[in-house]
Amino acid sequence: MKFLKCFYALLLLAFAGCKPDSPAVPPTKSYNAHGIVRQISEDRRTVKIQHDAIAGYMPAMTMDFNVKDTNELKNISPSDEITFKLVVGENDSWIEGVHFESHVIEDVTNNTVIIHMPTAELKPGDLLPDCSLTAENGDRIRLSDFRGKALAFTFFYSRCPLPDYCPRMSKNLSETRKLILDIPNAPTNWQLLSISFDPQFDSPAVLTAYANFYRSGDASHWLFAVASTNTIASLAPQLDLEVLYENEGITHNLRTVVLDTQGRIFRQLDGNRWTPQQLADAILAAAKMPAQ
User: Fold this and answer.
1) Local confidence pLDDT in tens for the 292 residues of the chain
2) Distance between CA atoms of 182 and 212, rounded to whole angstroms?
3) Cα 153 from Cα 223, distance rounded (Å)
4) What does the alpha-carbon distance between residue 265 and residue 120 come to, in Å, rounded to a whole number?
5) Cα–Cα dist 46/41, whole Å
6) Tally of CB atoms within 10 A around 290
7) Could you give the 3-state DSSP secondary structure of residue 135?
8) CA distances from residue 49 to 39, 87, 142, 147, 206 in whole angstroms, order as listed
């Protein structure tokens, strides 16, 4: 009997010393995604997104996604292009990390898409809103990646047949770069960026070949990238840029912009009559602006 009492005492002590473990957190996986918002529920708990293929998880389709934190959809509206993370657990899924890219302009008639809106053009000193691009190496980049540098960018497309349009812009940037690099002790915090508005044709491989022709194999201070039509739709009205996609052709005007080290518009050169020296002078002046 004494043995049984000792046994039960030890058993009680053992149970008293054992505390239940905290419930295990169900494992989740997250996937980077990109799409266009089509509908948002009134309580902002669900959002219908027409999304691209989500690598490693699902093909492109339009479907409703749950939103745990409704603040994720703050300032997001239907027809907005967004990036987000799809989080998938054992029994549920939701989106988070929603980031606005641009507002989609959908005006399509007879295979014609016009990107231009009658709105106020940004002026020198105005901050240019950030946007996403695909660089010539396939990486996603943003204009904000160049903060701290004077950034000069122009628009083009590699199939442009008119020598006084896109080819002239590329030649001017080539000469501008040479002018700055030839200056002894010139500032080094500057960057040239050529942005294609032809995502259907100007793939990273096409951009690289085109860029190498004008850069003569030297990529220093000059990067080529391509913007989606949605990104162009967002930028165009702010810079009075006009782009007309019609069948296989693109009609456009010319805009070359210099941003200071804080991402504000320093100078805009319209048309094709400006000189490489004028652009070089603007870049050097913008590079001297203090960065925050």
Assistant:
1) 444 444 444 444 444 444 445 556 668 889 999 999 999 999 999 898 988 888 888 778 777 888 999 999 988 999 889 999 999 887 778 899 999 988 776 654 555 555 555 456 889 999 999 999 999 999 999 999 999 999 999 999 998 877 888 999 999 999 999 999 999 999 999 999 999 999 999 999 999 999 999 999 899 999 999 999 889 988 898 999 988 887 667 888 999 999 999 999 999 999 988 999 999 999 999 999 876 6
2) 20
3) 9
4) 14
5) 6
6) 7
7) strand
8) 7, 15, 23, 31, 30
The C-alpha atoms of residue 186 and residue 5 are separated, in whole angstroms, by 90
- State residue 78 phi and psi, 5-degree precision: -55, 145
8 A C-beta contact, residue 245 and residue 201: no
Alpha helices, DSSP H, located in 63-165 = none
CA distances from 287 to 59, 95, 178, 186, 266 (A): 44, 40, 16, 10, 10
- Cross-sheet strand order for the sheet of 150-156: 140-142, 132-135, 222-226, 190-196, 150-156, 255-259, 265-270
Q: In sequence order, what E strands does 41-131 have?
A: 46-51, 61-66, 80-88, 93-103, 108-109, 112-115
Torsion over CA of 237, 267, 149 and 154, rounded to 10 degrees?
50
Which neighbouring-strand residues pair with 152?
Answer: 192, 258
In angstroms, the Cα distances linking 121 to 127, 188, 256, 257 are 12, 30, 14, 13
Q: What are the tokens at 206?
A: 């096409």
Helix (H) or strand (E) holding 167, with range, is: helix 166-181
**At which residue do the structure tokens 């030649």 appear?**
171
The candidate with the shortest Cα–Cα distance to 198, out of 158, 237, 246, is: 158
Total-model pTM: 0.64
Q: Bridge-partner residues for 94, per DSSP?
A: 87
- Sign, CA dihedral 224-226-231-234, equals positive
The helix-helix angle for 204-215 and 166-181 (nearest 10°) equals 50
